[in-house]
Design goal:
The structure holds 2 protein chains of 2 kinds. By secondary structure, chain A is mainly beta. Chain A has one domain. Chain A is built from 1 helix and 8 strands; from the N terminus they run βαβββββββ. Chain B is α/β, with parallel strands linked by helices. Chain B folds into 2 domains: 94 residues, Elongation Factor Tu (Ef-tu), domain 3 (Beta Barrel), CATH 2.40.30; 125 residues, 3-Layer(aba) Sandwich (Rossmann fold). In chain B, strands 4-3-6-1-2-5 form a 6-stranded antiparallel β-sheet. Chain B has a 6-stranded mixed β-sheet with strand order 9-10-8-7-11-12, with helices on both faces. Chain B is globular, with a radius of gyration of 18 Å. Classes of the chains: A mainly beta, B alpha/beta. At the A-B interface, strand 1 of A face strand 3, strand 6 and strand 12 of B.
């Protein structure tokens, strides 16, 4: 079965919990394939168990996000080490 | 405040076709939104279980009124409930307005190509409405890909042909076309985009929305037709 991806437009809601500005127009150059894309253009897999956003050019992981009842975990880039934002619900 | 959940009260539900519904909500203190933006809708069950889904805003901001387009997904957790069961006057929570990429800014003057597949027409309809009600005179071409006449949204409002405001609309049927339709039913092809890649001498700003397969296919065709990838903005809904 082919896993159908969405795109980074859907990250606007989840990321609004921790970003002060609208984040999906932010640009990033992929360190692997050098493709520049906005956060909205990333290919997104999830949302369960967490969201993984990948470079649309080479599929390298650009961001991972998981919402738990008491916190949002946000990993920037493909290497482990997520930020844990405590959030009330 | 960003990330804030608003209480939204259902005030009207309209049939767009046999399955698709337009839902009108009243949201107190709504900060307004731009054409193309979406909201997250959150439902909470009696036992506390929550489900969140994204829905495109179908119309430009108008006071505290939100208009959402809902296509029920078979076996879905949220969309069949919203489309068929949520009672009038009942409330859901909404978070937004969301998104800044798949947005049309009325002050821009360049030509625009809107390419929607199925219920991907919803945010594009908000852009058409915004264009019609603004002083903007940028040429708009709307290509609306749909399976059959029975699945058409906004039939009264988005008619084939050119309107007085400078919005041109073409319907592209993929499985079943009406008898009077000269284009035989079939998948979107490069021929359907002939002339679309250049409007008034240059590539238009393109907005492509629909199921993932449609968006990949359509955006690929636009680039093959010569539209720079940077001029193609996409939104996939699975």
């Amino acid at each position: 079965m082919v896993v159908q991806h969405l795109d980074g437009n859907m990250l606007a809601g989840p990321l609004s919990e921790v970003f002060a500005v609208e984040p999906t127009t932010a640009l990033r150059r992929c360190p692997h394939c050098r493709l520049v894309s906005s956060l909205a253009q990333l290919h997104v897999y999830g949302p369960r168990p967490g969201i993984t956003a990948r470079c649309p050019g080479c599929s390298a992981i650009a961001l991972r996000l998981a919402r738990h009842p008491d916190a949002l975990w946000l990993q920037l880039g493909g290497v482990e080490g997520a930020f844990r934002f405590p959030l009330a619900e | 405040m960003r990330g804030h959940w608003y209480l939204a009260r259902l005030v009207e539900r309209r049939e767009e076709n046999a399955t698709a519904r337009t839902l009108l909500f009243d949201v107190g203190e709504w900060p307004g939104h731009l054409p193309g933006q979406h909201v997250d809708v959150r439902l909470t069950a009696d036992d506390g279980y929550q489900a969140v889904r994204s829905y495109s805003l179908a119309a430009p901001a108008e006071g505290d009124r939100l208009e959402l387009g809902v296509q029920p997904v078979e076996g879905g957790e949220v969309s069949p409930y919203l489309a068929g069961q949520l009672p009038l006057d009942a409330c859901v929570e909404v978070r937004g307005p969301l998104g800044g990429w798949f947005v049309w800014h009325g002050e821009r003057t360049e030509p625009v190509l809107l390419l929607g597949g199925g219920s991907g027409i919803v945010p594009l309809r908000a852009m058409v409405r915004a264009r019609r009600s603004s002083a903007a005179r940028s040429p708009f071409l709307l290509l609306y890909a749909l399976r059959s006449p029975a699945e058409r949204w906004y039939a009264e409002e988005l008619r084939p042909g050119a309107d007085a405001d400078g919005v041109r609309t073409r319907l592209l049927y993929s499985r079943e076309a009406p008898a009077e339709e000269p284009r035989p039913a079939g998948r979107l092809t490069a021929a359907d985009l002939a002339g679309a890649a250049e409007i008034e001498g240059g590539p238009p700003l393109c907005y492509v929305c629909g199921p993932t397969g449609f968006v990949e296919h359509a955006a690929g065709l636009l680039v093959e037709e010569g539209v720079p990838p940077g001029r193609v903005r996409t939104e996939r809904f699975g």
